[in-house]
Design a protein that fits this description.
Length: 234
């Protein structure tokens, strides 16, 4: 839970999640000898369910450190967890199926861009309704403020692309996929005409269309986030 929160929060909430994850790992360090022998596994034949769970949850710790600046696993603070995880990650069968470090970093960087709208995707019921309202209200503020940062007409070529365009496209370019998955229209052409026209202009640029995933892949990605990072029910 705490590790998930590290990925989907920002600011003080993320700092709290990092501390909770580190504290949890301290407890895991103290308790591992009760569940494991004193030496790391050396072959796939020794892999158990708990090994697989540990690898699935903590196997991206180096990428998390690179993207979020959070050192969750420290060889001095967590020597047993560290040695066990490294032994698992270096097994040929595990190395063959897991993402490379670069692929994991790229994936986490995409997740980081989604942090502001994660509650919309990963919650349900009242929590989701609140998150949707907050996101719609935030987009209203963006709509009102966009004229301060952009000219009054959408860009028409890649030469006009700026950093903010890229960020907007990275996050709001998935709005139609989010709408399909959760059934809520975040960016509405009537409520957010400027934001809507800007996003549409961006995603129609040839250079952007060439590198961004198809609608089908975007929907699959949003479903993956929702299914794997869904907040637990209170």
């Amino acid at each position: 839970m705490a590790t998930r929160q590290v990925l989907v929060t920002e600011g003080e909430a993320q700092e709290k999640a990092i501390k909770e994850a580190i504290d949890t790992l301290k407890i895991a360090e103290e308790g591992m000898l009760e569940f494991f022998p004193t030496t790391p596994i050396t072959s796939e034949d020794q892999l158990g369910v708990l090994d697989i769970v540990i690898c699935s949850v903590l196997g991206s710790y180096k990428a998390i450190e690179e993207v979020f600046g959070a050192k969750l696993i420290d060889p001095e603070r967590n020597p047993l967890v560290f040695s066990w995880l490294e032994a698992i990650l270096n097994l040929p069968a595990v190395k063959e199926i897991r993402l490379t470090h670069v692929e994991t970093v790229n994936f986490l960087q995409i997740l980081r861009l989604f942090a502001p709208i994660f509650p919309v995707i990963t919650t349900e019921g009242e929590a989701q309704a609140k998150a949707i309202k907050e996101e719609i209200d935030a987009l209203k503020v963006v709509e009102e403020g966009m004229l301060e940062f952009f000219p009054t007409t959408p860009i028409t070529s890649e030469d006009q692309l700026g950093l903010l365009d890229i960020v907007i496209c990275s996050v709001l370019g998935y709005s139609k996929a989010i709408e399909e998955v959760i059934g809520v229209k975040l960016v509405d052409p009537e409520r957010n005409p400027l934001v809507f026209s800007w996003v549409e202009a961006l995603i129609e640029l040839p250079a952007v269309k060439q590198i961004r995933p198809s609608h089908e892949k975007s929907v699959a990605f949003i479903r993956f986030i929702r299914d794997n990072l869904k907040a637990p029910k209170a």
